[in-house]
# Entry
Amino acid sequence: MWSPTEEEKYGVVICSFRGAVPQGLVLELGETVQILEKCEGWYRGVSIKKPNVKGIFPANYIHLKKAIVSNRGQYETVVPLEDSVVTEVTATLQEWAVLWKQLYVKHKVDLFYKLRHVMNELIDLRRQLLSGHLTQDQVREVKRHLTVRLDWGNEHLGLDLVPRKDFEVVDSDQISVSDLYKMHLSSRHSVQQSTSQVDTIRQRHGEACRMPVPHHFFLSLKSFTYNTIGEDTDVFFSLYDVREGKQISERFMVRLNKNGGPRNPEKIDRMCALFTDLSSKDMKRDLYIVAHVVRIGRMLLNDSKKGPPHLHYRRPYGCAVLSIMDVLQSISEIKEEKDFVLKVYTCNNENEWCQIHENIIRKSSTKYTAPSSNYGLIISLQLLRGDMEQIRRENPMIFNRGVSVTRKLGFPDVIMPGDIRNDLYLTLEKGDFERGGKSVQKNIEVTMYVLYADGEILKDCISLGSGEPSRSAYHSFVLYHNNSPRWGEIIKLPIPIDRFRGSHLRFEFRHCSTKDKGEKKLFGFAFTPLMRDDGTTLSDDIHELYVYKCDENSTFNNHALYLGLPCCKEDYNGCPNIPSSLIFQRSTKETFSVSTQLSSTKLTQNVDLLALLKWKAYPDRVMDILGRLRHVSGEEIVKFLQDILDTLFVVLDDNTEKYGLLVFQSLVFIINLLRDSKYFHFRPVMDTYIQKHFAGALAYKELIRCLKWYMDRSAELVRQDHIQEAMRALEYLFKFIVQSRILYSRATCGMEEEQFRSSIQELFQSIRFVLSLDSRSSETLIFTQAALLNSFPAIFDELLQMFTVQEVAEFVRGTLGSMPSTVHIGQSMDVVKLQSIARTVDSRLFSFSESRRILLPVVLHHIHLHLRQQKELLICSGILSSIFSIIKTSSLEGDVVEEVEMMVESLLDVLLQTLLTIMSKSQSQEAVRGQRCPQCTAEITGEYVSCLLSLLRQMSDTHFQHLLDNFQSKDELKEFLLKIFCVFRNLMKMSVFPRDWMVMRLLTSNIIVTTVQYLSSALHKNFTETDFDFKVWNSYFSLAVLFINQPSLQLENATPAKRKKILDKYGDMRVMMAYELFSMWQNLGEHKIHFIPGMIGPFLGVTLVPQPEVRNIMIPIFHDMMDWEQRKNGNFKQVEAELIDKLDSLVSEGKGDENYRELFSLLLLEKIEQETWRETGISFVTSVTRLMERLLDYRDCMKGDETENKKIGCTVNLMNFYKSEINKEEMYIRYIHKLCDMHLQAENYTEAAFTLLLYCELLQWEDRPLREFLHYPSQSEWQRKEGLCRKIIHYFNKGKSWEFGIPLCRELAIQYESLYDYQSLSWIRKMEATYYDNIMEQQRLEPEFFRVGFYGRKFPFFLRNKEYVCRGHDYERLEAFQQRMLSEFPQAIAMQHPNHPDDSILQCDAQYLQIYAVTPIPDNIDVLQMDRVPDRIKSFYRVNNIRKFRYDRPFHKGPKDKENEFKSLWIERTTLTLTHSLPGISRWFEVERRELVEVSPLENAIQVVENKNQELRTLISQYQHKQMHGNINLLSMCLNGVIDAAVNGGIARYQEAFFDKDYITKHPGDAEKITQLKELMQEQVHVLGVGLAVHEKFVHPEMRPLHKKLIDQFQMMRSSLYHELPGLDKLSPACSGTSTPRSNVLVSHGPMSPESIKLMHRHSPLNLLGSVRHSSSSLSSHTSSETGNLVILTDSSVGETAEDMYHMQASPSTSSLSSTHSAPSQMINSAPSSARGSPSLPDKYRHSREMMMLLPTHRDRPSSAMYPTAIMENGQPPNFQRALIQQMIGPCKPCSDPNLSVAEKAVPAAPSSWSLDSGTREALPFLSAHVGSILAPPVPPRSLPHGHYSLHFDAFHHQLSDAPPALPARTLRKSPLHPIPASPTSPQSGLDGSNSTLSGSASSGVSSLSESNFGHSSEPPPRTDTMDSVPSQAWNTDEDLETPYLPVRYSLSEPDVLESLKSQPCRSHSAPSGVIPQDTMDPPALPPKPYHSRLPNMENEEGMIIEDDDKHRPLHRKVSQPVSGGKEEQARVAWEHGISEQ
# Structure
């Protein structure tokens, strides 16, 4: 049974639970759960992560934690009972975990690892905190570390800053905004510093003087390894100051045995010392650690005879030093000990022993000897900081080791009270002794004793060093044979204070004999008392003592015998009458010096101080003694503080009149002494004294009197030092006064109370008097006032002991009120005054509400004055924040209404004014006083903002009511509202608080929204009806809009946890403000019209905030606006215009979404339904909604990594919408420019020009002035249009669309001419001329066109379910285009069929792309039909200004005729009409209309024959008119193709199909068409006859056999057609073999006229018809294959009549008119550039190639095989090439078929192709045998001199896996090879070694025969790629060689007009797809147009031209092939060779 839990309420998951039980709750390890019920080992509850999902989970998976439960029951809340820091760490780690993983994904690896480290540290520290085993100090330290790491991580992850106090997160409700601001500041500071923050709120005023931190060195001797001494040693360590040349510390002594270990076994590992109390100044001194080593043993170490072994002497041995400066850095960085090795050096001369350390430090190496090995003293050092208490606390281990505390000589910087010390340091300096009749000098040892007055030797009063116990006697070390020893050894004498007086020191001198007995003989002594007769101790100085003679028998039992003698010179002068007959005689020649230094807190060496303490002994000197107190050193005074104070007050009581003022001055002197930081810590001693020991009950009267006397005289005196000192001592003087009064009151039961009160009153009057004096004239007075003001706040606490809070407050108010206002005093006094007020506010007095009511007005008055004048802003803000802090604290306990009221009245207005000033200054970065940098400006702004917010937050309804009621007039109210709204707006605009101060920003927003709610009612009440004020309302609306748009309030961007926290605390403040805004809008009534259209943009911005509620509230306002404008103007044009404008900019900024669009439409349509103007309203809302669709699409495109195409399409769509649908010209023009920029970026220059043309067309040639717009300056319309025209012409030029630029040139020319601007006219005419030249001379590539269908709802709105035709890029083929489209739409699926998709695809949530190539149908047919118009000109019109496109699909109707497939082959022809012609403002346009027609087989045949005739006519005409020069190859190929195909069954197939009786009877309606076909066939025979005649005229002698073969085959063809077409027997003479003059041929056939020619050429050469054959025609013996597959036929020749184009026909049957070669099924066709259909085929079939593209087979682009440029072996072509070419050319059979091309895509099994021409099949066997190793990538052509024939093999196609698209070179590459002598009898020899290459583009199905002499190729061979060769179909001749094209330019920097005569290197230009030649050069330039001069004798010889002419004649190729300058010589040799052969 489930029962509610009592204790088990909260737990942590310790094992993940998968929830695999009914109602199981899935839990992850580490999640926290709230438990509601339990039942038999199971709990039921919720995860804190998902509080709405309840479920059950096993109890043993949960670790329970204690928790506090509130509101028990169904809605109980549970808070874990743990340290808040632990809770924060847990939550933070969970939040970081998610972000941490993202860092890795975003490649922020460095931060990833750092954060991981910090997270591990946090987990570890959290574990320590939870363990509960830490002390309070350790807990504090752990929390500090935790918070530093939390803040660091939050900052680096961009999370919010957490304000803390004492490491715990503060609750913003519990503290004032000012305090919160300071906490944020200090948290940020601590993040930046990552150091501890002791307290978050720093004390700003009267900060106590910081106590200097003492430093301590911990030194430990590890071992003394340099142990060759063999005797015991003493090692003395001390700190030595090199600059001052003295030790600054006591010595630390270590006693070692002869093995180097401690002599006392207990000391093992405990030989350590702590050198204490080093100040920061000491740390900067040049300090060394010096170690002196003294051995204890025989006199001479290496001489055993010197002295008996049982006698041991202390003898100097060696010294080691270590510079602290050198090691300080390394020991400061680490917290543990660090080891160092100190080398021990020995002294060369014992006499210099006392200086050995200095010599080592100075490196005087002659005076010491280095040790033989590196070993020595190994010590470890550690630097510690802090006072001794702290050191003991933090390092207990050190003190457990029995560390010896080694103090400084003298007092530390800070003398701590209670530090009792009484040490006399004595240094044995030197001695001078007589030889005493000896031959050698003595070995002197000094022994010292401390004796008391009674002669007793004091025990344990001599310490050689810390670390060893004190002893009763001291023996110095012995210097060998030295009568003037220098020791320099320091001994500490810790003599008890009670034994000091009367004690003396006695020094005994002995000679240590090294004879056998080795006794020590006494020969003298010296002594000195420790205290003088006057009670002072021995002074710190060198004392030269008298030496008295004595011997071994002398006895010192009666010390009185020598104590009466003078011990030194001063003593002798003091007692001159010494009897000479004493037992001891002074040795006048001998002296002995010692120096002493006293460090005592109990004994003094100062006579004046002693005199004061014993003043009663000198009653007549009291005045003098009191006066001399000032000259006593501070150390002496603080040591005897209590005694001195007692003495002073006793003196005062003794004679008040006489000594009063002097005692007062002495007291002031002592009090001020304690202000010094060195004695600051004696203040508690003074306090204790006043509280417990002070007994001057009457003193107060005199102190008050003196104080008043001083103050009253301050107006008169010039020198006021003593007055200022008295002012500074005010605090302690008052303490004495008050304590004295208390004592008196206690003693007398409160007598004289009134007198005391009145005296205090009078004293305060004097204080006010001092402060009210005008100090501007007297600088000393300023200092007096400043001193008084500084001390003044310190006396409040004392006064509170005697007076009530109100009384003290009144005193203070009077005093503060007496200060002149800021206008009358200097600036320095301003600061002091404010600091005094600040300390008043910070004092205890101000925390009482009774005193605050009295003090606040005066404090606020002063602040008000300063703020008014903008002075001392920083201090004022500090005071204000203190006040707010106190008021906030008080408001939690009591009522502060009255105080807040005061502050509102005094401050609110001036605060607003100050903030406005600061904000405007901070924007202009003017530094105000007290703010020297932007940082300060920001800080001061923050301070004042927090003050204002604090005040507003404290204000209640009544406060606001009073505030608003108190305004005298509406103008005042208006001014106030404008100010406060302006400040609020600036707060949000300037973002005063950094982005990560979320707590602060949210609190600010909350205060603003609350304030605005209070103020809006006043706004509504006062400024709505008659008093409507636009400015205030506008300000209000702007504020509300800014507020809702604040980044910090956009909760959608926050994490779920953060969002929940904000909503729980504040709710969604945007909604609150939106409601407020809406209700205020409704209150406006008829005044709404004032805000139309001004507020439309801002309100639109608000509605775009992604908060549904805000949108629901705000969108209806637009209906309201429309309604009001409709009422006023009868329309809402303004609303419409503004909405559209603003929508554009806001959506492009990233606002708005699909939901908004729907909501906008829904809400407004609903409202508009009821209106009378609903039609216009609905159409407006609809168009705005549609605009939004487009804008969102546009934004998504621009924002994402979308491709250029998408962006352009989107922009065009939006631009058209602005123009056509909503007629916004300005927006339209903006988008024209955006579109133009995109085109330029994509290098679509033609499109960019057309785009700009749209703007240009909007302008007229007028002088109307135009304003500045976009990047255009303000100028006249004419100037702008001219500038645009020039730019457009420039872009047309860059895009090589010169024909489009020429009309603009003319238009400009007309303008210039009309203005007589001949300079510009000349320029533009030249430009026009250049463009004509360019058209004729520069090469241009004809683009492909592709039809793309976008189907499915996932496409952007502007593409969805539409079809487009796209103009491809240069060289772009179908596969490349398809690939590009698929990469632009990666989600899209390519459709594999060309059929129109059905509804299921159109409506599905996906993306489908349907792509195939289409053929352009040119509009301008006239130019294409004109004769003699160069093909370069025509080619432009074939592919530009095209609006219609079509594609053909072959199909069979009815059963397919297996014998002759032409009978049933139909064509389905689709014509697409676009919305605009291409090219235009985009590379693609939408299809507007599609038409479908079917073409019958007969019509198809007619078109094929007609096209072939047209092609032949054109070619022949070109040769007749000398447009084609020299090379007859193209004509040879064309004739061969037609004649040979006809012989092998070309047109015979049509005869069989359509002249058959069966067909004629079945199709009676076709009679006319059959007749037409017969006429065409007849015409073909005539044309061929003319062609052969022309061929005979130009044919090269070596090609005669081919000509003869053609004539033979032509006769066969004619005879085969004879019986069908009777007219064919009249064969032309050329055909019969008899030579006829050219005129005869022309007479018999008539010249080829434009009328008889329909020009049908496209620029690409003829193509091989590619078919994958598995069956044969009547001429091939293969069996038929299946009929279903499509095969692609392509050809480049297109008939371009208006209706009739060249058609491409795909034949599914096996028989063909042309006998083509069989090929394997992988055959791949390199298609023609545009696949426009074959001249031999009907155009209907042209698109089968494109259809094949849709098949899913090979994606890769095939490339034609070709021969590499000759790879020479010793200058010869490789043998296999030679052999191959011989074989191929061997029989010299006609071996070219202009119409055959290999299928572009592999088709599994395809029937034969269809062509009228038959290619030879004989070549196949040997071709396939030899092509295996002849491989190379496709290359553009290389130039040859005219007259050379070049052979191209398109025979080898290789299939590339993933090969790039083939290069689209338009013609074939020709390479000159070695000249090989041609034999007239051997046709093969002329081509032996030929190095022909194939053009590998889609237009390369051409091979041209070239029989000529070949020159050496100097060019390096192009790169050859290895590919599998595939046998070829046939070879093709070049066609159409009449137009000289310039080569393709790949470089943008190339000049537009190429220079005329440039040498033309023959390079292979790589295609964009990446087939790259080995070396790159500039593309060849074009030679100038030739003058056709021919040599008469060469005129009729085979049409050849001599070489000279060659240099100037452009070659008529598709890609220009001018002769390379480098190859002229080769060409010439080859040419001459050819001539000679003839």
User: Anything to note?
Assistant: The radius of gyration is 56 Å. Confidence is low (pLDDT under 50) at residues 195-209, 926-932, 1623-2038.
